[in-house]
Design brief:
28% helix, 40% strand, 130 residues, 4 helices, alpha+beta, seven-stranded antiparallel β-sheet, 7 strands, globular
Length: 130
């Protein structure tokens, strides 16, 4: 299997970093916008959509700033890819952005970016900042 390609996208978002962090780091927050349901046992998170389930391991998190996960399926295939959701605050304007780093097959990058755009759009609706 070919290595996946890393990409990063930025989403300006009108919400406080503290509130945003709750939505990217907790099972209840993630289940509001990222997937239909999220369960966690320690560092293992189970993301549930309709009739499919994916497990991800929480690689690290920095309180109020970022979370980083690796899909268990990727880990089993020996892939070093991950997805990270990071909150970035502009020092001067105090504008808040959500920075997403992810990996996808070369021919699936646009599709993956579209998926993130839709997910973050759901998040903005939940936050009332769309």
């Amino acid at each position: 299997m070919d290595d996946k390609v890393k990409f990063e996208i930025e989403f300006p978002i009108h919400a406080s970093p503290q509130l945003l962090y709750q939505y990217i780091s907790t099972p209840s927050g993630l289940s509001e916008w990222f997937s239909d349901n999220v369960n966690s046992r320690g560092e293992l998170f189970t993301f549930i959509w309709d009739d499919s389930e994916e497990e991800a391991k929480l690689l690290n998190k920095k309180n109020g700033e970022r979370v980083k996960f690796r899909w268990v399926a990727d880990e089993e295939e020996g892939l070093a890819c991950y997805f990270e959701i990071r909150i970035q605050v502009d020092e001067i304007t105090k504008d808040v952005s959500l920075m997403v780093t992810d990996f996808a097959e070369d021919d699936e990058i646009e599709e993956a970016k579209m998926l993130w755009t839709n997910q973050v759009s759901d998040l903005k609706q939940v936050l009332g900042s769309s």
